[in-house]
Prior knowledge:
Blueprint: E1 4-8, H1 12-24, E2 28-32, H2 35-44, E3 49-52, H3 61-71, E4 77-81, H4 86-94, E5 99-102, H5 107-125, E6 132-135, E7 138-141, E8 146-149, E9 152-154, H6 158-169, E10 175-176, H7 177-185, H8 194-207, E11 216-219, E12 223-226
Parallel strand pairs: 1-2, 1-3, 3-4, 4-5
Antiparallel strand pairs: 6-7, 7-8, 8-9, 10-12, 11-12
Helix pairs in contact: 2-3, 6-7, 6-8
Amino acid sequence: MNRRILIIEDEQRIARILELELTNEGYIVELAAEGVQGLAKALQEEWSCILLDLQLPGQGGFQVLEGIREQDSRTPVLILTAREALEDKVKGLDLGANDYITKPFEFMELSARIRSQIRARLRDVTPAAEDLLKLDALTADLKTRQVQREGKLIDLTPREFDLLVFLLQHRDQPVSRETLLSEVWGFDFAGQTNLVDVYIRYLRQKVDQGFKKKLIATVRGVGYSIQEP
């Protein structure tokens, strides 16, 4: 992930200090001095983290936060403000802020909180390459056992997931029913091949049904394959 931080802060002295300190730590920093400009920048580009003041000219910080969260649920947003009231903290967190830090603050603590939020986002949205199988808009995460297609979560049983994973690991290759029985079910005989057909039907209903492109193909005389349409 890039190391880019957006600071939405109208107090020039604070913004400049943060810019210098974060730049010194290796971040690329951009500034916005009022709410409308800050919201536009937040949505136009990708950021590792956004630092947001609440008392902004033009459009207040809570409005900016709402605007960000309407279109972006992932980028960490840390509120930096002199407003210490409990109701402000609760409102900010309820609107989707990841953290709430009151001024004055120690930069070392702020830096640690930024790093913590960036690490948390990386864990959530960036599976290790070896843990993620992809085909077209279909993904299967081997670690979380989560399957998505075109951003939609697909609920699979453990056996359906194992069957999908084996097909994805052998994408574009015809796989026989006997091989699937042996590798997915652990059967060492050639009977019960109808079991494979039943589970392929279940899998198609979940992975292909309702989508324009069909990924699971029948290979006549052999078995099945998953492939680019």
